[in-house]
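To: structure desk
From: M.T.
Subject: fold request, one chain
Message: Could you run this one when you get a chance? Sequence is below, nothing fancy, just the single chain.
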Amino acid sequence: MSTRRARPLLGTLFEISVANDRSSDSFEAAFGAAERVHRLMSAHDPESDVSKINRAKPGDRVAVDPWTYQVLASACGFARSTGGLFDPCVAPLLQDAAFLPRFAEPCADGWGDYRHLELLGHCTVRARCPLQITLDGIAKGFAVDKATEALRESGAEAGVVNAGGDLRAFGPTPEPVYVRDPAAPGRFFFVGQLCEGALATSAPYFSRTEHEGRQASHIFHPKKGSALLREASASVVARDCMTADALAKAVLLDARRMEPVLARHHARAIVLGPETECA
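Reply: Done. Structure tokens follow.
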């Protein structure tokens, strides 16, 4: 017997299921953690930490929340380990395709990447050149982890936190896991059971669109600047959802290159569809 509740957060339906627990305190603590991540890291909120960084001029010090600083540090770490296939500074490409709002004028000389973002300590960051960040590729996983942490701290012994398919299961009962067929997203494949772990999926099937005469999706190759349009998906199983969330993007862009990175994180990937390629 489980109790299930959901709220719209982080651009998706944030769903929590707790076994043998009807206490509203558990759910409120978990949703509160997710809502905090949403307020701090949404690129659509002009008052978020992400937007403050994007409005800042190069050299300006920007104070951010400890959670934002933690995610930025992790994002830069994943950017280094993936050779830039995961890059929190991919926001200009998403802005050009109208997936994200602009809070700064376009940069004629080009934008910087993760190597130009300095983490100065004491929850302070600085850009060495014009750049725009987005944490959409990692914040949802972090929110799932923080909600799971809040559930456990409030006494929940088992449950599942699911943010639009990025999920984490805790407790002794294995959770059956399904992923969408990238060629027919309404169809699901059973890929196994998850126990004390997380899974996140990256795919373009719900975001393919046309903008100013060009096909686009919300997944861009940071180095090539092109959008992924193939009917493919990558799911990563890891110990925590933030790791799974970040690595799923890199695996989708270059699965073979990411094999040693997955091994270092004790993670594994499930790739569906043809060899991925950017338009």
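Reply (cont.): The two ends are 47 Å apart (CA to CA). Let me know if you need anything else for the meeting.
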